[in-house]
Every structure is written in C-alpha cells, then in structure tokens.
Amino acid sequence: MRQLDKLWNYQQADKKVADFETEIRQFPLRQQLLKLRNIVADQQTVVRGMENDANKALERLEELGAQRDKAAQTFAEIQQSLQEDSFENAAQVRKVISQMNEAVTKLKAAEKELSKMIAHSQMIENRYKEVRLKAAKARDEYTRLKVTYDKEFEKQTVRLEELKKERAAIGSDVDPAYMERYRNVREQRFPVMATLNNDQCSGCNMSLPSAIAKQIAGSDEVVECENCGRILYMP
Ligand SMILES: [Zn+2]
After folding, report:
1. Predicted pLDDT of residue 122
2. How far is the CA of 204 from the centre of ligand 1 (A)?
3. How close is the Cα of 25 to the center of ligand 1, in Å?
4. Is residue 58 included in any domain, yes or no?
5. What pTM does this model have?
6. Is the four-CA dihedral 194, 198, 199, 201 of positive or negative sign?
7. Which are the contacts of 185, defined by CB distance < 8 A and separation ≥ 6?
8. CA angle at residue 11 from 167 to 156, to 5 degrees?
9. Domain count across the chain
10. CA 164 to centroid of ligand 1, rounded, Å
11. Quick one: pLDDT band at residue 123, thresholds 50, 70, 90?
C-alpha cells in the first residue's frame, strides 16, 4: 500500500472527526440551551433595570410625602392664626388667605402626583412580577434541558474520542514525512487531499497539465495542486 493511500484513509478518518465535531456544535439541544441562556441573561438585565426604576420612584414618593406634610402643616398653622383672630386689618387677612390658598394648591399638587405614582407603581409591579416569572421559567427550562444535554454531551464525547482513536490508529501507520505535509496543508484548507479526475483537481476544479496525472499515477510522490495547494491523489 502506498503512503498516499494510507494518507487518503487517514483523511477519511479525519473527516469523520471533523464532521462529528460540526454535528456536536450544531446539535439542536445545544442551540436551544444557548438561546435560553441568552433569554435568562436579557431578563436579568430587564429585572435589574426595573429594580433601579423602582428605587428611584420610592425616593420621589418620599419627597412628595414630605412636600405634602409640609403643605398640610403650613395650612394648619394659618388656620390656627385665623382662629386666634390676631389680625389688625383686612390687608393682613387677605395676605393670610392668599398664603393659605398657596398651601392648598401645593397640597393638592403633591397629592395628585402621589396618587398618579401609586397607580403607576401598581402597573410596574405587575410587569415586574411578569418578567420575574418569565425569567424563572426560562431558568427552569434551562436547568431541565441542561440535564438532558449533559447526558447527550457525555455520549457525544465518548463517540468523538472513539473517532479520534480510529484516526490516530490509521495515522500511526503513515510515514511521518507524509503526515507532516498533510498537517501543513491542513492548516490552510480541508480536505487536504483531492483526487485528480481527467486532469482536473477535485478540490478546486482547476484543470491541470496532463503531465501531472502521469507523474502521480501509481507513484508515492507528493504533488500539490498549483491552484489550491491540495495534495493530488489518484487511487
Ligand atoms: Zn486544486
């Protein structure tokens, strides 16, 4: 058996490994898990943003509460002074009434914004619960799928190791110099070897001088395609 035939067999085993690695990467359950992981991460960001907004709203609520209390206190003070009847003229009374009206306006404004915020916060809270529920569901789904995936991955790893062993066994029978040529091309392109059919490289479909077929037929000489660099092979 020529070294090139052995190398060709090695490439078949190498291809099986590469194909299986692709299969593992494209495994639907893996894709699904990656998608779920992104959903969980996105929802965590949303939840954090909502918590941030909620904290800001709480601060504003406290501010408004203080404003309302202050306006109510001013109002009570003015009312008290009115009852004490300590005014000397109508101008003073008018001034005090205008202050009272101002306090009432502030009080009403603070109360209006407060009730608006309370209604809004109810909505936010519902939305928050909804998002957290969704996040929890995605997390559960992820955990559930992960168990199945891990089992599957274990099997895949075992199979991949088998294929790699097969490849190594075939490779150990190939002359190291040939193997080195193979590896050099392998870094650039795969498959490394291409058959020569009717003076055409099957790797890149380029037509090559007919002298090449004569050169490599039955020979163990390594000839690379002048266009794509693959090692040309004639069975
Ligand atoms: Zn080529």
Report:
1. 86
2. 4
3. 28
4. yes
5. 0.68
6. negative
7. 192, 224, 229, 230, 231
8. 45
9. 2
10. 27
11. confident
**Is 44 exposed, middle or buried (CB count within 10 Å of its CB: 0-12, 13-18, 19+)?**
middle
What is the extent of the structural domain holding 70? Answer: 12-174
Residue 67 sits in the same domain as residue 109:
yes
Q: How far is the CA of 14 from the centre of ligand 1 (A)?
A: 19
User: Do both 26 and 131 map to the same domain?
Assistant: yes
Dist. CA 232 → ligand 1 center (Å): 8
191 plus 161 within the same structural domain: no
CATH number of the domain to which 91 belongs: 1.10.287.1490
pLDDT digits (tens, 9 = 90+) for 5-39: 999 999 999 999 999 999 999 999 999 999 999 98
pLDDT tens track for 80-119: 887 887 777 888 888 888 888 888 898 888 889 888 888 8
CA of 185 to the centre of ligand 1 (A): 12
Specify the range with the lowest mean pLDDT, choosing from 69-78, 86-95, 173-182, 207-216. Answer: 86-95
User: Based on the domain organization, do 34 and 115 belong to the same domain?
Assistant: yes
Indicate if 122 and 223 belong to the same structural domain.
no
Does residue 185 share a domain with residue 79? no
Alpha carbon dihedral 225, 229, 231, 235, in 10-degree steps, equals -40
pLDDT at 86: 72
